[in-house]
Amino acid sequence: MDKFDVANSQKYDVYASRLLPREEYFTSGHRSCQGCGEALAVRWVCKAIGKDAVIAHATGCMEIVSSGFPQTAWLHPWIHVAFENTAAVASGVEAGFKILARKGKISGRPPKVVAMGGDGGTSDIGLQALSGAMERGHNFTYICWDNEAYMNTGIQRSSSTPFGAMTTTSPPGKMSIGQHTWKKNMMSIAVAHGIPYVATASPSYLFDLYFKVKKAIETPGPAYIHVLSVCPTGWRSATELSVRLGRLAVETAVFPLYEVVDGRYHLTVEVPKLRPVTDYLKPQGRFRHLREPEIKFIQQQVLARYELLLKKCEAPYPEFPPLHPPEEGE
Amino acid sequence: MGKRVGMEVSIAVSYAVGLARAEAIAAYPITPQTHIVEHLSSMVANGELEAEFINVESEHSAISACIGTSAAGARTFTATSSQGLALMHEVLFIASAMRFPIVMAVANRALSGPLSIWNDHSDIMGARDIGWIQTFVENGQEAFDHTVMAFKIAEHHQVLMPMIINMDGFILTHVVEALELVDQEMVDRFLPAYHPRHYLDPKHPVTMGAFAMPEIYTEVKMKHQVILMNSYDKIMEVWQEWGKLTGRSYQPVERYKTQGAKILLLTMGSLSEVAAIAVDELRDQGVPVGLLKLRLWRPFPLAALREAVGGAKTLIVCDRAISLGSASAPVLSEVCSAFYSLSKRPQIRGYIVGLGGRDVNPEDFKEIVAQAQAKPEEGLSQEFHLFGVRS
Amino acid sequence: MSKPLDQMTWQEIELGGLLREPGSARAYRVGDWRSQHPVWTKSRCIRCGVCWTVCPEAAIVEESGGYFDMDPNYCKGCGICSKECVTGCISMVAEEE
């Protein structure tokens, strides 16, 4: 692609980046690795949720780098309890605000409740609490920071680790190709609960992420956003590639960007011509050991699942009934 | 005074929670706590209690959601038992470390394995170190009284600690007793609305739950210990106030016929009532025996216990839980520690009774006292007797 | 919280270990970590602001005239801004000793 240059730029009056809010809600001074894609995502999600929100956060990379006593990088009211119960804590905060508002102890609209957790704290140990919170229909947004392994504890595999990836508990060897199962589909699990808003997002597509988060927090009821968080440390990629890799994940259909509104699927970023998965796998050391058969399998699976997703986008009605019957007058 | 009614104790506890105007309840059903949460559910559904009832999907989520509701600033209650308490375990420490004044009723029930739904104290004895205030009640009236008082104690601005009221499962929870209730007006005057000192509010953002490096962890624990131990005075104040309002005064270590007693039994929970009957019968026979009922378990009432024992020669501690692999028993070991450093101390004997809901009757206590009166054994490999075990 | 951690007494610890100063992490100058830093060639910069959006550290600040520069206190030298720059006007330069 030709670099956009000063000459081209004369055609434009305004750059969209400059229209975004300047106030930081996740401050500098946090201790994430250089080039952390997750920290970039957190920075923007916190801006999108706005001032009037509280955050419940799981144990994990983002919690550890940002909240070592006595320093905190968070400008939002923020609570960390344990690893697997963020959705339960958020359920409690939401219910607490609800009753206090009802009793007139807090005036106006209660703050938005946002729960955040990594892939480990969401799809593995935190799955029960998340499922319970979604099933009960709490008015909250759950954001999953998916860096595809238990990164904070030293890059051990999770159910979100992609097929073939090297982690310290799914190392390749004579008897192993690395992770031998496909990434757990958290999106489908969320959709199956009949919640009104589910989406994938990536900080490489900033505006897509930003407006999805805004939509999620305004949606009454549970909302789930799954954010692909590039981790140069765990993925063994160059630190400067964190945004580029996120883009490649979308352009190869490894991580398509879509949303599911009231059970209806649609892509939010269309890729007219998909790139081959090797474009995405090659810059990452965690896939370095893969040979032809594995790569072929990955390519096949990615395309097949993408086709399935496209079909879901055309489905005439939602697969799962909504959580609650519509209110009177709807 | 108040109205006198016959009521199942679980219902009385729910009624107490309603009088206390609890605002948020997150609970998961487990025998024998079920009647408490069922009744609370129906109170909320009927508009008798203005609260949010969260039907969580496990006890781990129950206590986590309680932390959430408390962090939002709502008066919070939950109840559990046995396996449920065990499932909450890691979060219990966090709730007290973060100073959330959650009130929890524990319907004491034996821990698995094997599965048992019947009463003993193994569930709560496995949670000695969680840093909560813990009390034991002997009967339905106490269960009712202490549930109301717990909110006042826990939410006191110099305390702000979660609190457990232990009540024997089935033996208390499922029994109808004659109780004297109090009215809403009295409770409203006794227990004002909850005003949290720390809560989640975008107008005053705070970070809760930061992690601690080795340089500071010890200091954090020290602070917690000091606050928990110092809560003793506030607990006494609240109990005294209740005593003035209702005529029912409570002590951390209750004494029953201890005047001139050479031998003292020490029990907790509903066993105290049974032991009292045995004491009556033995006294009639001229045996100089008395009873101590340990009501306050955490903070441990060291001074009150030493004072209550006074000059008795023998103290028989009756545990209702076994600490497997220990040479001692839960309450026994703490009582022994309380007297070890004193030059003048009673001979302390340990008995474990009533495990897994096995009935303990006055005859059993009389037998225990008789054994204690016989020649004291020295140099035993175990410090306790597992009373009534068939071999 | 200006006292060093290993000098704090137990009495000084807030309610449940609460932190009342949001954003206090700014006291930690992570800029010490870097081994390279970005340099903007202003003549080729179109002041689009993309570099500002892609910094995980929020360590790119707008200066006079709408141009951007790194905040030396917090830039970790990851190179994302350089890679994502639309006109390619940011180059990564090694830190001097």
Q: Features of this protein?
A:
heterotrimer; A: 330 residues; alpha/beta; 8-stranded mixed sheet; two-stranded antiparallel ribbon; 10 strands; 37% helix; globular; C: 97 residues; alpha+beta; two-stranded antiparallel sheet; 4 strands; elongated
Structure report:
The complex is a heterotrimer of chains A (330), B (391) and C (97). Chain A has 330 residues and is α/β, with parallel strands linked by helices. Helices cover 37% and strands 13% of the residues of chain A. In chain A, the strands form 2 sheets. An 8-stranded mixed sheet of chain A has the order 2-1-3-4-8-7-9-10, with helices on both faces. In chain A, strands 5-6 form a two-stranded antiparallel sheet. In chain A, strand 1, helix 4 and strand 2 form a beta-alpha-beta unit. In chain A, helix 3 crosses helix 9 and helix 5 runs parallel beside helix 7. Chain B is α/β, with parallel strands linked by helices and 391 residues long. Helix content of chain B is 40%, strand content 18%. In chain B, the strands form 3 sheets. In chain B, strands 3-2-4-5-7-6-13 form a 7-stranded mixed sheet, sandwiched between helices. In chain B, helix 1 packs across helix 2 and helix 1 packs parallel to helix 6. The longest helix of chain B has 33 residues. Chain B is globular and about 70 Å long. A two-stranded antiparallel sheet of chain C has the order 1-4. Chain C has a two-stranded antiparallel sheet with strand order 2-3. In chain C, a hairpin with a 5-residue loop joins strand 2 and strand 3. The model of chain C has no long low-confidence stretch (mean pLDDT 94). The chains are: A alpha/beta (330), B alpha/beta (391), C alpha+beta (97). At the A-B interface, strand 1, strand 2, helix 5 and helix 7 of A face helix 3, helix 4 and strand 9 of B. Strand 2 of chain A pairs parallel with strand 9 of chain B.
Short description, anyone?
The complex is a heterotrimer of chains A (330), B (391) and C (97). By secondary structure, chain B is α/β, with parallel strands linked by helices.
Percent of sequence in beta strands of chain B: 15-25%
What percentage of residues of chain A falls in helices of 4 or more residues? 25-40%
- Main beta sheet of chain A, described? 8 strands, mixed
| Continuous helix count of chain A | 13
Query: How far is the first residue's CA from the last residue's CA of chain B?
Result: 52 Å
SSE sequence of chain A, one letter per element? HHHEHEHEHHEEEHEHEHHEEHH
What profile does the largest beta sheet of chain B have? 7 strands, mixed
Query: How are helices and strands ordered from N to C of chain B?
Result: EHEHEHEHEHEHEEHEHEEHEEHEHEHE
Mean pLDDT of chain A: 95
Number of helices of chain B: 12
User: Would you report the number of β strands of chain B?
Assistant: 16
Beta content of chain A: 5-15%
**Strand order, biggest sheet of chain B?**
3-2-4-5-7-6-13
The stretches of 5 or more residues of chain A where confidence is low (pLDDT under 50) are none
